[in-house]
């Protein structure tokens, strides 16, 4: 038989769908005739294309079917009936309804959290009426020597000033600088205040409200300060702060400066990435830093922030090309670095890209995408459950559908009824999930202080609106497949013989869904367990020095001698050393050293002579520092093995006595230490040096031996209060601080662990539903088998075999994938990791198998034990 | 009234239906028009016009027998109604009258 080309079926179907029935046949015929002609003249492919185009061309007002009014009316009238029958069906099948509602509710609670979270992030900075025209000037800083580039939220002082002066196409520009603050003295009271420096454009660019004072001049004069209500209340109580003076300590010749309060403003809202208690005029800095050349250098891009307002209806293109030119000419003048500018839209700051030196709390949009994707996966998984169960129940419901159709229900009516049922279930789930949301919310916020600093997850009308929208969408997604399935059912066929419905056509799909759910569950649980194992490994990592029972006390500007003396009076404090930073917690002090024409980047710590013994560092050669007065002649350094080998100084013994330079200062190596981990586990050991100082330090490291830690801490607190009554004690045990530095990892483990619990619950419920369905529909078969002599054991095996097989299939998919994900992607980020153990990988599988066995077992045993006589008699 | 005046293309289609007699269905009308007028006639346009003419009551249609060409779909045959005949005649009359008052000279000079 010769092959005759046919027009594309979907196009014909589309035509049939939209075309009025009385025009359809003729039109279809005409198009077909043309199609045949085109096949002969232009070939099959062109003909098909023309056919499709023609089908779309015929979509005109006179061909399109008008929605039948009566049909809509029926839908409207039937809504009550849909709700009633859905309610009945929900009540009748309590088991299935519970599984569905519970499964949907648990997954939707994640959706609710996510919605509230995103809503909070989206309401950031929205109070500013010019917000859509504001852009932040952000810099990319590239080191010309090794090509390392950093993207910064900050910029220099000079660049924004140049822009404001030279470029006419902007409405305004505000220049700010972080780091204003310190102890404010008013009368005899000392109150620490924190804020930012800003020039006088502040209140023109932003919409923060100034309650008292002139918005145009408040920040103009040097030594002016604007206080927020909260801060004013702290400093002045109920007195009017306007016109009063505040004395702030600083590095000026007098040792302090006096600021005049020129404004009182509303507190910035919680959802603002710019947060402050006080604003000091930028002009002050020009006076305070007039002897600091670096302040006005092009490459000092670390702590200033510029926000530019463009005029209405203007694009950023012109400004960007001006900025590119500006960067180009300036970069030619600088030998070491190049700095380029980008404009970041104001509303993309709070939820945006990864920048260093952020001014306030922000969230990475990439992280949000990943989290959202996970939430969608979890919710879809629960939707699959619903779909799965509903189609599984089709044998029970199809007769009902048959009768409906005989009475006169159209396809669309059946469709509407089943979708309505799904939406009702999803709304019931919403109620439950809202309860779960209220319980989860505080737990979620307490995961990390950064989270609670960033969002509140409060309910607003729009958030509630989105909750309801989520319920509707979940209902539609979950209900659409079963609804389509039922709508297709032919009445005659169903009423004649229910079993003729081809449910088994979907068996493969349902199995696939179960496998997918269990794969996810297993992957999540394995990830959690492996992640937790790694976390434990990280915090117990052997750093190469001792951190037990060492309390790091931040000096907060106090004289180390004084604090040290006060602490030494506590009997539990055995020894005290000093350092400028706390290593192994993710912070680094860096510099570059030169040695005989070679140079290398190093990290360093500045310590006193007690530091190395207290922390148990091991010397390979040389000696510890000796006590030195300030103003020493010789600068000494103690280095690690890596430095010795990197600079090819020979053996450790040979290295002692060598000299190297930092900037122009000469250092002599007095000791070499065994390598130790001063970074986190994500970085390997590189050259490191210890410098000596007794004064320029920020921390005291107190070695404590105590039986009653709480009492000891109280003593430390008391001693601190005597020295510094203003600032609160900031002291943390070394191991706690290390643990804290891996907090992000811990949060990740907790979140994924939570998702694992969700996924397992959902998967288990799906499985339970399937098992119940299978056993119920096979009750008769089982009884007959039993009558014929099958043993209970063999029957249980028969019923459970299929399910166990599915679980094993998911294990075969999930576990290798998780293993590969960890070994090839996640753990690559870290230099030192724990090996992935069998227990972490398979523990979850065993747990899940046990849960599944209990569920399968409980159902199959019941059926297998049933008395065949009573089963067979009943029908 | 809407139904009394014929557009140029409507008139052509109507004339073609009359000319084709018992074989006037959409594709044939299309082909015939293309042959006679020497212009590209789109099926979509003809369809729309046929639909409009039927609405105006100038033509009527009935479905023919099913055949195994056209994917087994029946053809819709159009025939002209008496109202259609009347409006064709009226259009011709108007033209004839106009032709008759043009002086011979005017045409000759311009051509």
Automatic annotation (TrEMBL), chain B:
InterPro entries: Tscrpt_reg_PadR_N, WH-like_DNA-bd_sf, WH_DNA-bd_sf. It comes from the Bacteria. This is PadR family transcriptional regulator. Signal peptide: none annotated. Residues 16-88 form the Transcription regulator PadR N-terminal domain. It comes from Pseudochryseolinea flava.
């Amino acid at each position: 038989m010769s092959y005759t080309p046919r027009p594309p079926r979907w196009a014909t179907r589309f035509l049939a769908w939209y075309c009025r029935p009385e025009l359809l046949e003729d039109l279809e015929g005409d198009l077909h005739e043309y199609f045949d002609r085109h096949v002969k003249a232009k070939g099959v492919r062109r003909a098909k294309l023309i056919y499709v185009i023609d089908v779309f061309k015929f979509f005109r007002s006179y061909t399109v079917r008008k929605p039948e009014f009566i049909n809509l009316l029926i839908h409207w009238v039937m809504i009550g009936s849909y709700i009633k029958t859905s309610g009945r069906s929900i009540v009748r099948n309590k088991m299935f309804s519970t599984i569905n509602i519970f499964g949907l509710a648990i997954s939707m609670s994640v959706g609710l959290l996510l919605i509230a979270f995103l809503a909070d992030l989206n309401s950031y900075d929205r109070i500013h009426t010019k917000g859509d025209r504001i852009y932040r000037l952000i810099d990319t800083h590239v080191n010309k020597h090794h090509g390392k580039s950093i993207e910064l939220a900050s910029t220099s002082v000079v660049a924004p000033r140049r822009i404001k002066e030279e470029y006419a196409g902007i409405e305004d520009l505000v220049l700010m600088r972080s780091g204003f603050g310190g102890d404010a003295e008013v009368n005899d009271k000392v109150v620490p205040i924190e804020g930012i420096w800003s020039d006088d454009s502040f209140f023109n660019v932003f919409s923060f409200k100034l309650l008292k004072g002139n918005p145009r001049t408040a920040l103009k004069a040097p030594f002016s300060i604007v206080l927020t209500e909260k801060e004013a209340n702290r400093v002045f109580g109920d007195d009017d702060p306007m016109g009063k003076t505040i004395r702030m300590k600083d590095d000026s010749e007098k040792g302090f400066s006096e600021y005049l309060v020129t404004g009182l403003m509303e507190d910035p809202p919680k959802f603002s990435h710019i947060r402050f208690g006080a604003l000091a005029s930028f002009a002050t800095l020009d006076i305070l830093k007039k002897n600091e050349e670096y302040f006005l250098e092009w490459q000092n891009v670390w702590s200033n922030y510029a926000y530019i307002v463009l005029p209405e209806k203007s694009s950023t293109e012109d400004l960007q090309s001006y900025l590119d030119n500006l960067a180009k000419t300036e970069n030619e003048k600088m030998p070491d670095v190049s700095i380029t500018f980008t404009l970041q839209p104001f509303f993309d700051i709070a939820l945006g890209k990864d920048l260093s030196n952020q001014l306030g709390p922000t969230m990475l949009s990439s992280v949000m995408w990943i989290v959202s994707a996970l939430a969608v996966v979890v919710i879809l998984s629960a939707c699959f459950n619903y779909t799965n169960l509903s189609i599984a129940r089709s044998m029970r419901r199809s007769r009902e559908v048959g009768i409906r159709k005989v009475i006169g229900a159209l396809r669309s009516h059946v469709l509407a009824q089943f979708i309505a049922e799904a939406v009702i279930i999803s709304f019931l789930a919403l109620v439950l999930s809202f309860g779960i949301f209220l319980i989860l919310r505080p737990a979620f916020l307490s995961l990390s202080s950064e989270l609670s600093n960033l969002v509140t997850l409060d309910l607003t009308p729009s958030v509630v609106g989105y909750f309801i929208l989520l319920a509707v969408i979940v209902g539609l997604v979950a209900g659409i497949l079963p609804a389509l399935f039922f709508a297709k059912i032919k009445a005659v066929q169903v009423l004649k013989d229910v079993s003729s419905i081809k449910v088994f056509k979907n068996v493969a799909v349902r199995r696939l869904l179960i496998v997918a759910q269990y794969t996810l569950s297993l992957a999540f649980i394995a990830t959690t367990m492996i992640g937790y194992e790694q976390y434990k490994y990280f915090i117990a990592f052997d750093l190469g020095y001792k951190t037990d029972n060492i309390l790091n006390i931040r000096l907060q500007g106090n004289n180390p001698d004084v604090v040290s003396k006060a602490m030494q009076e506590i009997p539990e404090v055995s020894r005290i050393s000093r350092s400028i930073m706390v290593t192994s917690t993710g912070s680094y002090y860096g510099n570059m050293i030169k040695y005989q024409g070679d140079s290398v980047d190093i990290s360093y710590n500045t310590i006193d002579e007690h530091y190395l013994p207290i922390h148990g560092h091991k010397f390979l050669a040389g000696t510890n520092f000796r006590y030195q007065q300030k103003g020493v002649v010789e600068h000494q350094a103690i280095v690690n093995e890596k430095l010795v080998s990197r600079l090819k100084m020979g053996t450790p013994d040979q290295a002692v006595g060598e000299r190297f330079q930092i900037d122009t200062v000469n250092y002599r190596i007095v000791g070499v230490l065994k390598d130790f981990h001063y970074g986190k586990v994500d970085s390997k050991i590189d050259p490191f040096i210890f410098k000596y100082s007794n004064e320029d330090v920020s921390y005291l490291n107190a070695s404590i031996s105590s039986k009653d830690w709480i009492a000891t801490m109280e003593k430390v607190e008391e001693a601190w209060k005597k020295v510094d009554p203003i600032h609160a004690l900031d002291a943390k045990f070394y191991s706690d601080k290390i643990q804290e530095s891996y907090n992000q990892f811990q949060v990740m483990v907790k979140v994924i662990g939570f998702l694992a619990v969700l996924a397992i619950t959902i998967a288990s419920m799906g499985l339970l539903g399937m098992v119940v369905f299978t056993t119920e529909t096979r009750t008769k078969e089982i009884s007959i088998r039993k009558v014929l002599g099958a043993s209970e054991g063999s029957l249980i095996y028969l019923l459970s075999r299929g399910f166990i097989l599915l679980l094993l299939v998911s294990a075969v998919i999930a576990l290798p994938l998780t293993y590969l994900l960890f070994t090839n992607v996640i753990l690559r980020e870290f230099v030192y990791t724990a090996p992935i153990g069998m227990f972490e990988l398979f523990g979850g599988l065993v747990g899940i198998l046990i849960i599944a066995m209990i569920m399968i077992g409980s159902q199959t045993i019941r059926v297998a034990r049933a008395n065949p006589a009573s089963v067979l008699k009943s029908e | 009234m809407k139904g009394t005046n014929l557009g140029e293309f409507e008139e052509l289609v109507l004339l073609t239906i009359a000319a084709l007699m018992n074989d006037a269905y959409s594709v044939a009308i299309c082909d015939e028009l293309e042959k006679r007028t020497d212009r590209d006639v789109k099926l979509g346009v003809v369809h729309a016009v046929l639909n409009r003419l039927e609405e105006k009551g100038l033509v009527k249609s009935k479905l023919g027998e099913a055949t195994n060409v056209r994917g087994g779909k029946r053809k819709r045959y159009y025939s002209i109604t008496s109202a259609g005949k009347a409006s064709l005649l009226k259009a011709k009359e108007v033209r004839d009258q106009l032709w008759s008052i043009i002086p011979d000279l005017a045409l000759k000079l311009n051509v």
